[in-house]
């Protein structure tokens, strides 16, 4: 067996993540959360990482002994380090800013190496300069298998996701269209992100130049992987509402989700509210992007929210009304 065949075998599909029934105060409407925190590295980025490795191995860009390189922080680095270890490959990630243990430790625990670089935008050039194979999650946005798995489990009327690279929304939209499903795809977009204004203006080169405060989603510019033609609706979500919804999600499920899961939940509840107001039933699926203890010190922490100027309580009131079983 060649190394490539062996590696592709290790990068095959994994067991499906579950759907969680979430309470909504809307008769005939079902809200399901696709729980990506049940991935082996506890986030949706696990699928991205597998897809990027598979693509690179299949194209011969990664072979036995190749050093794998990426420029990113957070969950993507953890998932990629996990796959690099599984394949026995060295992994180096360039992260923006100063070293923090919370970001470095999970990657180093998996045998990866972290380098920290300022200013934040210098991470891409720094990663390219390292040599090895640059995975380039934004440039490549390899299609992952969430859509096939999800539509095999349920046939919803709406699916709600955030957008970082754009791969998830594009994958869901492409799958639904190719298979003639009447499911529509909504992207939940946080403050400062270019996706909502870019989509409303049909401007693929739109840039806000401002970083998103919601980890994992929202971008200062429209990324090449975001496909306007495969998205039916983009819903802007204020950051305070994202944080409130992440807290409500934790209250109901016990999962210490990140704020991006709250962004998606808030937008999903907007869709549920529309259905309720029209007296319609239906099924809405929203994504849980990740869960991690480290989120307890950020979006689930009152002092953190106050320091960021986020007034969470009014949104929590709305959420409790909309999610009263
Ligand atoms: C809720 C949620 N949706 C979507 C994404 C990913 O979006 P994309 O595939 O555009 O990078 C994330 C982060 O990985 C997320 O947390």
UniProtKB/TrEMBL annotation:
<dbReference type="InterPro" id="IPR001926">
    <property type="entry name" value="TrpB-like_PALP"/>
</dbReference>
<keyword id="KW-0808">Transferase</keyword>
<dbReference type="InterPro" id="IPR050214">
    <property type="entry name" value="Cys_Synth/Cystath_Beta-Synth"/>
</dbReference>
<dbReference type="Pfam" id="PF00291">
    <property type="entry name" value="PALP"/>
</dbReference>
<feature type="domain" description="Tryptophan synthase beta chain-like PALP">
    <location>
        <begin position="14"/>
        <end position="288"/>
    </location>
</feature>
<keyword id="KW-0663">Pyridoxal phosphate</keyword>
<dbReference type="InterPro" id="IPR036052">
    <property type="entry name" value="TrpB-like_PALP_sf"/>
</dbReference>
<dbReference type="GO" id="GO:0004124">
    <property type="term" value="F:cysteine synthase activity"/>
</dbReference>
<protein>
    <submittedName>
        <fullName>Cysteine synthase</fullName>
        <ecNumber>2.5.1.47</ecNumber>
    </submittedName>
</protein>
